[in-house]
Fold these 3 entries.
Entry 1:
Amino acid sequence: MPLVELHLLQGYGAEEKRRLGEALTDAVRLVVPADPGAITIMIREMASDQYMRGRRSRSGAVALPDPREVVRGYLGAMERRDLAAAQASLAPGFAMQFPGAPEMTTLDELIDWSKPRYKFVTKTYERFDAMQSEGAAAIVYCFGTLSGEWLDGVEFSGIRFIDRFELEGGKITRQDVWNDMAEVRAKA
Amino acid sequence: MPLVELHLLQGYGAEEKRRLGEALTDAVRLVVPADPGAITIMIREMASDQYMRGRRSRSGAVALPDPREVVRGYLGAMERRDLAAAQASLAPGFAMQFPGAPEMTTLDELIDWSKPRYKFVTKTYERFDAMQSEGAAAIVYCFGTLSGEWLDGVEFSGIRFIDRFELEGGKITRQDVWNDMAEVRAKA
Amino acid sequence: MPLVELHLLQGYGAEEKRRLGEALTDAVRLVVPADPGAITIMIREMASDQYMRGRRSRSGAVALPDPREVVRGYLGAMERRDLAAAQASLAPGFAMQFPGAPEMTTLDELIDWSKPRYKFVTKTYERFDAMQSEGAAAIVYCFGTLSGEWLDGVEFSGIRFIDRFELEGGKITRQDVWNDMAEVRAKA
Amino acid sequence: MPLVELHLLQGYGAEEKRRLGEALTDAVRLVVPADPGAITIMIREMASDQYMRGRRSRSGAVALPDPREVVRGYLGAMERRDLAAAQASLAPGFAMQFPGAPEMTTLDELIDWSKPRYKFVTKTYERFDAMQSEGAAAIVYCFGTLSGEWLDGVEFSGIRFIDRFELEGGKITRQDVWNDMAEVRAKA
Amino acid sequence: MPLVELHLLQGYGAEEKRRLGEALTDAVRLVVPADPGAITIMIREMASDQYMRGRRSRSGAVALPDPREVVRGYLGAMERRDLAAAQASLAPGFAMQFPGAPEMTTLDELIDWSKPRYKFVTKTYERFDAMQSEGAAAIVYCFGTLSGEWLDGVEFSGIRFIDRFELEGGKITRQDVWNDMAEVRAKA
Amino acid sequence: MPLVELHLLQGYGAEEKRRLGEALTDAVRLVVPADPGAITIMIREMASDQYMRGRRSRSGAVALPDPREVVRGYLGAMERRDLAAAQASLAPGFAMQFPGAPEMTTLDELIDWSKPRYKFVTKTYERFDAMQSEGAAAIVYCFGTLSGEWLDGVEFSGIRFIDRFELEGGKITRQDVWNDMAEVRAKA
């Protein structure tokens, strides 16, 4: 106890069912502090001829990608400066907010803005957290540390950062960034 | 479709069932982009004499508090400097990480550390995000802006911040903070 | 086999559950010629805090009256010439079609039309059949025999008739009548 | 809400499941005026080794044909005077009642009876209504208009009719007919 | 896994539900060697207006007594020679088979038969096993040791015995007894 | 009513599902004296990607053999003195108790013990009863009559016996035997 039965149209793969099962387990544990071994998920699948709503049979919507994977792909593409790949993860209307920067909407703006700030930055991730908002947006948080090289060639590392992403339909609509770069520069 | 049936021992209140229903709905939407009006939650409750595991009847665990409310309570208590109330929200072993600070474990340390930095700070919250980790910890993120007064009497406002909390058993075990204070001071 | 589980919000009375159980049993038997003793109906009821669709709890719609009873009430009122009571069973936009008559929309028209045809008519019912159309309308058929008195004082009886009714929201929207009056008069 | 789960032995085709789903949806709407989009049907199928009643596994009964189709086939065969095909739709003990006729039990009787009445008749159908009675009989109503030719060569059309059929085991056991032929002839 | 859902009409008490839950758990374990903590029983109860079979609502049959308790009561009554109480546990047609005895049908016969064999016997029970046969009969086995006094005043103890009972409708229809009395007497 | 739904991971064969269905039916009838034709078993199977407990997918445990068959195999092997085959049915720690014998733990002991008692024995079985104990052990009872030949060449038959077996993990851990041999010898 508790037991969750999820009734689903056929067409979702084992990986998608695993993601559903994990998300449902976690949803229950957010409220009920049950022994994990006692939280059971059973997924019941129906062929489209076994399901009817409003007197019409239905097909299941194609699953969304794991938003963590979308974000990981985007961040990896940015790190290796593959702007085309990074752009492919973004939804129209994408906006991003970096510390001390104006809100930017294109990756080129971001590149230009960062040029006078550091030569390059690499992220080491401590953790990705993903959740669905109460609306259409999925939310991903990731945090860890930045390392890289300032413009003067001095290396830095261990600078704390956190990114927050919103995604809709599997595409990133918003990125918010906080980090300790200014804190570190101020101390330098 | 999808339909979630949650089988639960009796004893949870309407508010707790609402939280479960919302969390389960959101869990499904993290994977399946279904029309919200088509995501149905049905909660089946059993008296303890209707449930047996391992040949023994069972009672339901007492529900956890909403971790957003725990965090809100803690942050409110800190803001009005009610340290006793704030302390009551913390688990043994609590630790916190602020920008440019060493890891601290007591509220007194935090008060001492902040004294040479600002007179006071007030938080305006844009949003609270809560989720369960894959383990025992619930996670809460909140972000918004800081306003307050520097030591020199100059006021500040609109400084971006984000807090991340971990909770176990309804108590806060960890707080991580990022903000643009250094960025703003550097510009000042 | 087959077994029908009906999941329903609380608030329906025993009589309404009986009507649902009978209609579901008959629906199954329209397709599967199962032994009646093997067709099982189980009605699961949920309080409104046990049900959520689209992240909102819901209340059940008030049950419709049995359309057979609505029709019986209307026909009884007409027979005893209680036009006010009969009118109360009719929806705005009501229309009726009698043999050899133009389409009529008011009970007064019907009274006027029947005056030169017979003094009075009494219906003996053999059977009422009710069903739901594929849309919003419930449909009721009733048939049996007419008896009464022609204008010349001659009595008649045993004249076959059938009435078809459509109802929406528990009110009659349409009545179609067929009978053997002309056949009988032609023979007379 | 409401949600109907139908538990069924395997062996029914998509068309039969569609008919079951529609009949169950309509059964619910006869009592509960729910938003059609909120009435859900889920059909659970079991292999025969997943079902046992009275300690014996069972096989599902072969589905009945759609009674509307049986009636359509019969009426079409009658119209094109294919008496053998029409006869194949009739159950032993079949009886029919036409306006002004004695009860007849064979198609030959009907043909003989109609000969002095009209040369031929064609039916235009406005609608077929099908339902299961509370017993073994399925009931079909169809109505519309007759056109054809009187014995004197004069054509007619637009004459209202309604037919009522009872079927058991997919065969027609009874036909009752009402129409305005006498009404029309009386006016002619 | 496995999970057993038992759907039951209301009216059974907590003790009866406990017996059902235990019997269902054991039934599963006879085939599936699951971790006991993973075998879950959920009992769903329906009011009589929530259940219909063959278009009729039903009431649940009154529960049978625990056959172990019936047998314990009978054996206790016999031991204290309360023949009226013992008789009350027996069904019409009761028969019993003791070692070396003819089949007997009345308690008086048994008393008479035992008189020349021992003064009295007391049973010490090691265990009662109860199960349902594939038919109407419940079966109870109990075994342990006999102690008592032979006719010559010599005491005995530790003589192995086993009794097998069949019950229908909560009454004992048959008792079969095996023991080592002859073995022990032969050695004496 | 009652209806038992068994939710099971895939991988059990038709024979194993039959055994489960029978055991569940009998478990219900031990408490509820329902009309057998009204006790329904529905087995729901899930692929391993449709089931998760404690956030991990699971596989079903391999079914236990029917303990009756294990016992039948053992008794058959003993009767034809195939000690290797009989031994294969025994668990480590096996013990057996025969009338008038010390507890024995090996088949060789048993053979030695029986040699001075009879030439051979053949069992005719009236019935096998199997059940699961409340713990890990399955229990089998079988009874009937013994026939064979005493050491002096005299044949015997019709001697009542009963055997009780305990099994764990499909292997026999204990055998207890009662019979009327001494009774019969005493009379001889």
Entry 2:
Amino acid sequence: MTLAELAPQLTEIARQCYARGWAPGTSSNFSATVSRDPLRLAITASGIDKATLTPAEIVEIDGLGRVMTGSGRPSAESRLHLAIARARGAGAVLHTHSIWSTIISEVAEGGVAIEGYEMLKGLDGVATHEHREWLPVFENTQDWAGAAPEVEGFLTEHPDTHGFLIRRHGLYTWGRDLAEARRHLEVFEFLFEVIGRKRG
Amino acid sequence: MTLAELAPQLTEIARQCYARGWAPGTSSNFSATVSRDPLRLAITASGIDKATLTPAEIVEIDGLGRVMTGSGRPSAESRLHLAIARARGAGAVLHTHSIWSTIISEVAEGGVAIEGYEMLKGLDGVATHEHREWLPVFENTQDWAGAAPEVEGFLTEHPDTHGFLIRRHGLYTWGRDLAEARRHLEVFEFLFEVIGRKRG
Amino acid sequence: MTLAELAPQLTEIARQCYARGWAPGTSSNFSATVSRDPLRLAITASGIDKATLTPAEIVEIDGLGRVMTGSGRPSAESRLHLAIARARGAGAVLHTHSIWSTIISEVAEGGVAIEGYEMLKGLDGVATHEHREWLPVFENTQDWAGAAPEVEGFLTEHPDTHGFLIRRHGLYTWGRDLAEARRHLEVFEFLFEVIGRKRG
Amino acid sequence: MTLAELAPQLTEIARQCYARGWAPGTSSNFSATVSRDPLRLAITASGIDKATLTPAEIVEIDGLGRVMTGSGRPSAESRLHLAIARARGAGAVLHTHSIWSTIISEVAEGGVAIEGYEMLKGLDGVATHEHREWLPVFENTQDWAGAAPEVEGFLTEHPDTHGFLIRRHGLYTWGRDLAEARRHLEVFEFLFEVIGRKRG
């Protein structure tokens, strides 16, 4: 799909996430893959309020994070979107800042294990509630150009991962397309809230 | 009522449940009885996102769970819908995945007793807040064809039951029609949240 | 105001309360005073789903709770609405079933004291946050014809009360008109949630 | 911008805050700077329900809090809006009463330190999550004419402050314009909820 086709879809997803409190202020960013060879992503520009996002605020970047089409600066975290697109062949990447993902990212040590819930079957390839999902927690940084290769390496080595957290920051999840990425987002947000409230 | 009449009503209920966070991702399924002899249910097809469900994604199944009308695969859990329709003469069955029903299903042992709340009077046949409602918690399984008869047996032996939980999975409730089933759903969700927050 | 004028306003308030989760299932009832001499109330009929309430489901009752205009049975709790209208000269009475009022009604002993919050100034006649508001908790009953006089006596003796709770049941609050009653409702719900979460 | 231009914008912000539960009853007030020399603010009149606020209920006041344009009495807290406009050159000031800001204002001692969260980067001038934000908690009073100079002095001496709390009352935050003030509000509400839930 082209930037022109993906931009309204990303805008709609961003609006839904904002409405649910998962993208407050100018936080969060959302991308979808325009082409794989060469790699091109449609991605929300940096510093945009998700409550009022318009398709014109979605830019197209290349594999080095340079803007190919559209005006606006991509977020430093576009490096993570590119890493996920490369390592996992993702068609869409959603990065959100919810209350519960922030809390879980803070209290977890190296990662979060989630096991035994029916809701896990909403994750691609998971056929039973007996599945054990493990999300790593990466430390936050302001240098994603430097840190993204570590994340990309991890995802390449762990192809069964569906998401990860960044400490006191938020969630990254993805899917082969926007619908699957959105389903993964809902699954993880649900499970974080269950775990967070049980602990509370 | 026919499939054509029930499908839009089931779609509307599903949409409301999704909006309230009770049917995230592709979870949850909803049915209504088309005929009793032979038994026919209108039921949401498996793996459909409830945020975007359309009437065309409701199928009609027979008493063995085979699709009679419509395209789409019914969920393995249609066995439980059929069991409830048979054991309790239900006109509608709602199965949801909420945060609080998941938490309650996890912390309860064999079942949950709820007693002394005015809200209990929203359940069919309950005339006083002094009523004691008991919901069994069944263990989760991926083999509902095998496990549904046990549930059907329980419901036949306990005709005063208004709902049950599946461990780390969610709630089943029902009613003589969709309006009553929805009322029961609201009553149970309210009571689970009260109990869950009190415990928290 | 006449029944015809008040019914749409009560319907709108009920719809708002339902949307906020304060009137699940067929719970809650709402009234406004049509005339004082003789006493006449417009009140929601019993057993009506507040999600789909229409003005035709509001009836007019006299001071003994008998239906004067409209079809439908008034709730047994209309006795409490009449008691409040008489003891406090209320122009509107709102009775809701929220999560937090239910929890507070259960953990409080004879009543709830709320003190020191700026939000208290939203109550009629309260000019400083240093105010101490006291809400009695009455035990629940299914015989309100018998129990309403005790409530009426209490309210007559304590003219500074703005609301009361019924154990494991919900809140009653009122005002000189629907706007003031709604403001009192929002004030109490806010304060119950603050107190409930602090305790949690 | 003129009062006529700002009033609809303030009305819209108030409506959003009401919908999110941050401005219940007649609580909260919102202002934007019309001119700096002489100082003029557009501000919500006192005692108005934010659910039904209209642009006609926004008045223009001068630097002494006197109404220049419009009918309606400004809140006693307009003194704080003026103090913030003077000390920080704010173009907009938002004062809200949320559940979590009330709880945090009650449990904090002299102030609240928030550190290490990515969301802090939504505050003007904050470039890293390693930032430590400190919000003072001022004691509540009914004499803001007397107390506002202390607040103004504090803000002048601490130009890096983005907001403050009033004990058991609520939050004040601001920005160079309404969009920035709203972003700051969302950032603080998010962080209060994270901190409050973690503590819970």
Entry 3:
Amino acid sequence: MAKIPRTKSNDHSAQMSQTRRDFIEAQTGVALTHTGHYSVPEETLEGNIENFTGVAQIPVGFAGPMNINGEHANGEFYVPMATTEGTLVASYSRGMRLTREAGGVTTTVIDDAMQRAPMFAFKDAREALAFGSWVKQHFSSIKAACNATTSVGRLRDIEQHAVSKLRWLRFNFTCGDAAGQNMVSKATKAGCEWIMANYPAPIDHFVLAANLDTDKKHSHLNSLHTRGKRVVAEVTLPRQLVTDIMHCTPEALYKQRQYSNMGAMMAGSVSNGAHFANGITALFIACGQDVANVAESSAGFTFAEITPQGDYYFSVTIPSLIVATYGGGTGLATQNECLNVLGCSGKGSVNKFAEIVAATVLCGDLSLGSAVVSDEWVSSHERLGRNR
Amino acid sequence: MAKIPRTKSNDHSAQMSQTRRDFIEAQTGVALTHTGHYSVPEETLEGNIENFTGVAQIPVGFAGPMNINGEHANGEFYVPMATTEGTLVASYSRGMRLTREAGGVTTTVIDDAMQRAPMFAFKDAREALAFGSWVKQHFSSIKAACNATTSVGRLRDIEQHAVSKLRWLRFNFTCGDAAGQNMVSKATKAGCEWIMANYPAPIDHFVLAANLDTDKKHSHLNSLHTRGKRVVAEVTLPRQLVTDIMHCTPEALYKQRQYSNMGAMMAGSVSNGAHFANGITALFIACGQDVANVAESSAGFTFAEITPQGDYYFSVTIPSLIVATYGGGTGLATQNECLNVLGCSGKGSVNKFAEIVAATVLCGDLSLGSAVVSDEWVSSHERLGRNR
Amino acid sequence: MAKIPRTKSNDHSAQMSQTRRDFIEAQTGVALTHTGHYSVPEETLEGNIENFTGVAQIPVGFAGPMNINGEHANGEFYVPMATTEGTLVASYSRGMRLTREAGGVTTTVIDDAMQRAPMFAFKDAREALAFGSWVKQHFSSIKAACNATTSVGRLRDIEQHAVSKLRWLRFNFTCGDAAGQNMVSKATKAGCEWIMANYPAPIDHFVLAANLDTDKKHSHLNSLHTRGKRVVAEVTLPRQLVTDIMHCTPEALYKQRQYSNMGAMMAGSVSNGAHFANGITALFIACGQDVANVAESSAGFTFAEITPQGDYYFSVTIPSLIVATYGGGTGLATQNECLNVLGCSGKGSVNKFAEIVAATVLCGDLSLGSAVVSDEWVSSHERLGRNR
Amino acid sequence: MAKIPRTKSNDHSAQMSQTRRDFIEAQTGVALTHTGHYSVPEETLEGNIENFTGVAQIPVGFAGPMNINGEHANGEFYVPMATTEGTLVASYSRGMRLTREAGGVTTTVIDDAMQRAPMFAFKDAREALAFGSWVKQHFSSIKAACNATTSVGRLRDIEQHAVSKLRWLRFNFTCGDAAGQNMVSKATKAGCEWIMANYPAPIDHFVLAANLDTDKKHSHLNSLHTRGKRVVAEVTLPRQLVTDIMHCTPEALYKQRQYSNMGAMMAGSVSNGAHFANGITALFIACGQDVANVAESSAGFTFAEITPQGDYYFSVTIPSLIVATYGGGTGLATQNECLNVLGCSGKGSVNKFAEIVAATVLCGDLSLGSAVVSDEWVSSHERLGRNR
């Protein structure tokens, strides 16, 4: 089969986009009419995609308003959600109404770190151990080497993980408003080059990554130690609200929580929550995030209590929420509009966005959780239906 | 803040879409110009989204051609990938070139099951055990009750998982070309209603789901027992090809595999692969899949060997690949075009699509893996860059 | 250094035992006076140990009486516990008093399987899949080959687990009163030899075990699917008893349970219980079990509820309790006495013993759990102390 | 049923031991003749057991000599193993012979920490976060409060783990030659009392432990961050030795390692090794360790390589090896003799003992691993047999 047409110069152009659509049609007989219908300027896509040929049109609906009492996000927000799954926007909206009437969702970013974890191999474990000590002693030099590669990223600390004669260094960075995966790769590489140049004893093998980061896949390590932002969203629902809006009781929700905890433990699940991934994915697509990070961001913890007053305290913790308001797809046409609707464009807005995502997740888990309990779950899917 | 405008009738219309864009602009000062630029007919979105307001334009690039020797997918394919992450399409294309020159990727769907796992609680463990036996004895009646709700879904078997006085029944269905989550919820509900009506002893509590499924989150249970399709993609790369195209050797790749296995085990990762999520997400967005299922689909296993001839056998196994070629977003404007490019529209094409996804994942893991080994990884990101 | 003395004939004798003690003293200057003080007849140890040189004297204390309402264990039991950890026997006794006054512990063996999981490798995943189907079709022949090697073990079913071109067959057996690890190894080997002799297509590689069993180490697979006995112990504690004996309330215990569940999930623990391992180990040492199986048997689940009456329902589930009342160390001098005290010697007593172990674990978790809650934990260790 | 006889004073005496044996016989009809045969002085058992009634006689065999090149253990050792599992001592001895002829096992203790993890609950996540910062600022005061309770234990650092409005502080101590669980409980309690007395803002709830430690059960957290000693044992086996003694090749062992890694990952096992638990348990029983810690100590990692020379590098890493040469059962009659044989009695010997355990584990995994590969495994069990 023929190669996909490309040009070295000016590949992100209307012409090349059309050329490739024509090529695909010629090769497969399928016209990319809708895919070719877009308004994003092609030249803005350099750095975001190769072989640009058109766009996927993902429907966006707004949920809300959602009321947040965050450290960074404060007030009411209309939340853009890009999805093709019927019921989703309606269900999140229902949760947002519930929390709004309860006075809003409290959100807190409690940790922040993006990482790259190079691995060093030695003759034996004793040499690996000595290397570990040396790295600790030379942290400030390594940090200087890392930080010199970026005006934004800052090395926070280096965790060490050891097995056999191998030692992984998990470089933790803060990355400003960027998600930072590439930033920290480059910075870590520079740090490792400094190490390789200065370590006075032999190193058998070095590689910039060997699955301890862990990037684009969930790991328990990340849930323990954070990848991206660690965010908590909390709400206390007055008993009456639960009854009126969710058609169940705090006791029924709490009972279900016990079963769900046990089910998650038995299944070996990365989350004891309901469906963090749904809200996260819809926000990620709408807002120009790296959607593949749903793999990591969808893990998390739910914790609930019945208060002495009989109200329902409910919280979600997302330990590896990887978000950006700068770089990646955040500056693109529709994505930037959606970020702007949330007031999350420009310097210093990433924690605000993280709080909005966490609050959204909380609302969605409350809504689905109570639908399951009150047996409205299957029927609402029947009503709002999926396209068949 | 004001409520988002809705109408009971005709809510999926150009007018209501415009009304909501105007509303958002009035409320937030942000014009949704690009978001309002789309060609998907609004009325086709009923059942896919509520409060439809416009679209996210996600850039689509084609990778390939990719050569597959599957049971369902055969020949060469241009693979549509929707992403905003620079390098991604180029990297997957590089892997596709490699495997194409090696004679193509062999793919096999080795298992197929979508599930819902209701939970039943009893007075004590002994009554739960008796219930379990009764369910086994009455499987055919339960199956009939389930299957009566759907012309496509077929109950395959019911796994039982027990703890304390609780018993989860994990209903496994095949679902034709649909992903089937809603189909199996409805069918399982019917099965449970039959159980509740016919079980001759007391049941303390029943709920249709309690986190053992597990839906929209990874679980070890799903990796063991499949959710969606379990697909394997394999290739044997002649040594010369590895050297020529990937600029490294089978031995170097294999050594890195050992480190990556160890890193994944230490991290407690859900995958010992490199970045399954990237390819899956890009295909899911382009092809109208439920992108939130990246949470489950991104987990998996990589297995490699050096053959006696010195070539490199490499495989990926995706145990919970949730895909559809019917229902959900598969029929929408751009999504359907992309599925059609792959020849994956219409009856009986879901396994073909599953094989294409798995082959794509394999190509991407080969490309990133060898870039890490040959130290071309950071530099290629620098060159193709991200948008900043 | 010199070789340890052995004789081909009569190595399990008082003389050889003495010879080896003399040898150790000569080599190291340490007299094995106490180690040489024992009453177990040396000749009974053939098949239990090589190079027999003496015994470890592990102190045995009795806890109880413990009241059980089991299917196999009924009535009151004095429980022999071999330990060197102060407080342990007292703490378990306290829990036994509590449950005795609550009317006893209800126990149920809800599953039973011992396994060996051979692995078969093929040219590719498609051939591995075909093999899997063939194995299902020939189950009865494979079963016959397995069962022919043992008068006790019975093949129950064969689970299949697949990745890449590899396929593990997890042979599940029932083993009468034996733990059965060796029995199932031998039987599975025979089954595999039948397969190798009869499978009509090529098999690239076969090995009797490759870590999927999993033997002598915990795995999530075993927690899901049982290794040995899956046993549940349950009790409902009247509120007054909790206050009187445990000096706390059901609400306080339940609150702590929530924290403990969350802690276990965050830690990635194999158990959300308190210290199953303590009681299991003490019983295993006293009663001639394979103590290394603490690795598997110590995992488990705790589930609790406050009843509508305000009482405290509490349960433990041990999914991989590996026990025997026949074979291994069960027939040895002190071990057999302790089994006899429990009425667990002779045919058909293994489930009785399993229930006693589970009930003991429940009593210990109640005791420690309430000590933590009522802040009596550190102080009781101070009082009953450890040897320093 | 009657209460077990006890006296407030002098309960650890020959008389009370006899009284209880008589009581058990009267109640159950079973004479504890062998159990009553012991030489350990009763009065030495105060602090080790309550209701002392006799001893379990666990057969001890010596394996070895084993050659170690450790930082703390150097030279050849006869290793005492207490077990009732036939083949075990012989198999470990075989592995010791192999490594001895290869020049010995290299061992390194690479980390050391014993912990208690109290939990603090707050009004919300923001207050929990503020608390975390305060704890960091007041570390030296907390440390002083902890260390004042013990002359041996030293607080090393406090890890923080946060979810919802909860915060766990994981206090890491070094504990000299003791295992230290009780030492750190007492010290952590003192540290927490200092916190409670000095923290200027409200704390909703405090508890000394809530399953994050994790004690007497494996957790991924412990594998990542060490509980007890983190020890590595390594050896490089000349190819000829593998062939001569193990009847297989480095390539065959390495191939099996690949399958075993994959099996362990699929099973969700806490170890990719073969049977760490066997050697650890036998040494723990013989040497007065807290045998219940097999639950934690049996987890670990195996890493292997074929060297450029074609030899076989093999290593085991035990991340949570909980050992003591002081306190607990280490001073008892037979236990102390066995520790003395290893030269592990008295001050500063705990790392030596840790290295011996790790080297033993390595020898056992080599022996079983090669038996599986060379298909001698089932047959050796048949020959040396288990008692039936």
